[in-house]
Amino acid sequence: MAAAGQNLSIDPDRLWDSLMEMAKIGPGVAGGNNRQTLTDADSEGRHLFQKWCEAAGMTMGVDAIGNMFATRPGTDPDALPVYVGSHLDTQPTGGKYDGVLGVLGGLELIRTLNDLNIKTKHPICVTNWTNEEGTRFAPAMLASGVFAGVHTQDWAEDKRDAEGKRFGDELDRIGWRGTEEVGARKMHAMFELHIEQGPILEAEGKDIGVVTHGQGLSWTQVTIHGKDSHTGSTPMPMRKNAGLAMARILEKVEEIALSHAPHAVGAAGHIDVYPNSRNVIPGKVVFTVDFRSPTLSVIEDMETRLRSEGQAIADAMDMQIEFEKVGGFDPVTFDEGCVTAVRSAAERLGYSHMDIISGAGHDACWINRVAPTAMIMCPCVDGLSHNEAEEITKDWAKAGADVLLHAVIETAGVVA
Ligand SMILES: [Zn+2]
Prior knowledge:
By secondary structure, the protein is of the alpha+beta class. The chain is built from twelve helices and 17 strands. Strands 1, 2, 3, 5, 6, 7, 14, 15 and 16 form a nine-stranded mixed sheet that branches. The chain has a four-stranded antiparallel sheet with strand order 10-12-8-13, covered by helices on one side. Strands 4-17 form a two-stranded antiparallel ribbon. A hairpin with a 5-residue loop joins strand 1 (59-62) and strand 2. The chain has two domains: 12-214 and 332-415, Zn peptidases (Aminopeptidase, 3-Layer(aba) Sandwich); 216-329, Alpha-Beta Plaits (2-Layer Sandwich), CATH 3.30.70. It has helices spanning 12-23, 40-55, 100-115, 142-147, 153-157, 167-174, 200-204, 242-258, 296-316, 336-349, 363-367, 394-412, and strands at 59-62, 68-72, 82-86, 119-120, 124-128, 189-195, 208-214, 216-225, 229-230, 265-274, 280-281, 284-293, 320-329, 332-333, 353-358, 373-378, 414-415. It binds zinc ion (ZN).
């Protein structure tokens, strides 16, 4: 019997060849990919994935929102499957690895088990979640969100792209609406391998990020009412400069986030100034403060302080201020057992690793609501992602897929 020992490894060349083969579908203009969800290229990528899965002896199931589930049977007919996977869709100017590594790393894991004739108690199911990217049809992680009961299927299917095309119609058009009820599958566990999309692992010289949490976020829209007046003829003491009030509040935003270092972050990325004219003092500003942290109480504290300190600044300047919460996403704490399986796999295999918090959203963040879930991250060059220049090394891909293999077979149980 082949044990889950140190020598058990995926085939890095085969994994790499599959990544490069998939990248030929929906090529970008600068060496990356444009394989947006529910396009003809998406359909072609799905067909290739299905062909590979069937060649590896798996059975493909597709649900009514296009999520693909390729299953390798286990020895226990009553055991729930261990899921692995991510997404094959890309940004319009996306890379070759974001999402794809998690799906094809899952496929490589199955090919490796087949080569070594290793049987597992639990089935293993490799998944491609529909529309993770959310560029063509917002929001991101749409179909995994429906699967996890966060969104209704009708709501998702009514989403429209920039040309007014409906998600549900496009799913039918490319022929990937399956018959399974969305979310009906039950999972023993789920593991998602993904590139980091940030600079930490490379800077720290680590092969593996053991993802313990996903950042939560809170968006508060702030409106300040001052008074438009001439920038030349209004004396300084008589001004109600809403832009200045915003500047003072943004200093506070920085201070508030830094007071929860190192994990909390805060900034205003969206700012509208009215009337936005060179010689008019801003009479109104509207901006959105984005706070993020892996801890819910920290997010709540940052929101509360923004409101009280923002109100104090506006009062002192004799201006009206309004706060409106316009978006939010609670932090995710991944399953302790699954996280431990990832960390001990990295340890056993001798890969350098560190615990890390995912700054971006992933399908695993939704699936964590319905099944024990964890994520494995591998570095990417300069932390660059959502960019055609996104790059990883074959060694990083191997490390990530090896840790995935070991975490999964430990969870699925090797049968002698
Ligand atoms: Zn992704």
